[in-house]
Amino acid sequence: MSFHPRSSAYIRGLSFSFEIRNPQFEIPSYHRLMNTSLNLQEWFGSIDIYLFDQLLKGRFVPGMKLLDAGCGTGRNLVYFFRSGYSVFCVDQSEQAIAQTRRLAAALAPHLPADNFRVEEVERMSFADA
Fold first, then answer.
1. What's the mean pLDDT in 61-86?
2. Phi/psi zone of residue 7: left (φ > 0), alpha (ψ -120 to 50 degrees), beta?
3. Given this model, what pLDDT does residue 36 score?
4. Which of 9, 32, 102, 112 would staple 28 via disulfide (CB 3.0–4.6 Å)?
5. Is the pLDDT assigned to residue 26 strictly greater than 50?
């Protein structure tokens, strides 16, 4: 038996229908939700699942300063760039830092290029490091 999630319910062999008349409280259909402009891949990038778990648990709050030590190309930073966090990065690879700077310039142009440095983690030159 199939039913539309907005207009029917199925409970222990009983089926009934209802209609939501107030559009203010309309529950969007699954298909409408899945076709919205929110694209999770676009918003979060190729984020590491463990970092995504920490985001879901609320371990990061707006206004925090973030340091990604060994940032690579910045794949874990997309959400933080888009959300206005103060992000700092180090990596030994010049190419990786160049890519992270390009990503930051596109998603968080307010961040200075000096926040992304080619350095060894053990020898970081950030003032708070």
1. 90
2. alpha
3. 52
4. 32
5. no
Residue 47's Cα: distance from chain center in Å? Answer: 7
Whether 45 has a pLDDT exceeding 70, the answer reads yes
Query: Whole-prediction pTM value?
Result: 0.66
Q: CB within 8 A of 106, min separation 6: which ones? A: none
- Identify any residues that bridge with 87 across adjacent strands, giving them in sequence order: 66
The one-letter amino acid at 71: C
Average pLDDT, the chain: 77
